[in-house]
Amino acid sequence: MDIRPSEEMLRGKKFYKIFSFCIIILLLVTLLLGCFEKSDKDKGTEKTVKDELTVAFFDNDFLYPFSSTGLNSLTISPNIFNGLVEFDKDYRIIPALSEYWYNTDYYTWRFFLRKNVKFHNDYNFTAKDVKFSIDEIYQSYKSFIEEVIIIDNYTIDIKTIKPYPTLLPKLAQNFVVFSKDHLEETEDDWPIGTGAYKLVEYVENNYTKLERFDKYWKGKKNYKTCFRRD
Fold it and tell me: CA torsion, points 113, 178, 185, 16, in degrees to nearest 10?
């Protein structure tokens, strides 16, 4: 996929480098979550002995956050970001930030968005974030999307140039939602999404620390903190 962010929006940011480190550890969280959790008997009760995951350095190709590969579009991105829809384990389309949807005509997809979803910086997720992400981040979508129309804070229409029956698989494969306010209001380098983990500390050539996002709309994950050590 050839999408790129607009130059004026992300010019001068170190977002890409930091995001690369972040998504590498998020991949390991996805693959290893639950594999290392053990329990001991402590005076007749079960006690979890691990709530922190540490991962040693490994070689990587510094995945570009806006490129689509089998790894980052289906495995990595959902850990820090969410899209409107996603694939389940059997590659069926299921709701994500959109609870349900239908076609109002041959060219229009109406999505009803999930309420009470927070970004990692505590901003509320609304329709403006979806429109911004499609209009400003996913530039290549203009080849098949004519217009994104906000109906209200939690309802949005995506109008395609012509009938586009594969829109849902396209969105599930590689579309994630960014915070409009965060990217427009701050020069902060940290990637901000609605996913299960957030980046809290990064020391170049040393370590990356992730922390569980307790306001994650799907519920808390097992590990409280995760480290990637170089």
Answer: 180
What are the residue ranges spanned by the domains of the chain?
Answer: 13-81+195-230, 85-175
| Secondary-structure percent of the chain, ordered helix, strand, coil, rounded to 5 | 25, 30, 45
Predicted model pTM: 0.70
> Tell me: the pLDDT tens digits for 46-84?
334 357 655 443 333 332 344 444 443 444 466 788 999
Alpha carbon separation from 153 to 95, 113, 124 (Å, rounded)? 18, 8, 10
CA–CA distance, 214 with 217 (Å, rounded to integer): 9
Residues 6+ apart with CB under 8 A from 142: none
More confident position, 224 or 95? 95
Q: Choose the CATH number for 85-175 among 3.40.50.300, 3.40.190.10, 3.90.76.10, 3.40.50.10860.
A: 3.90.76.10
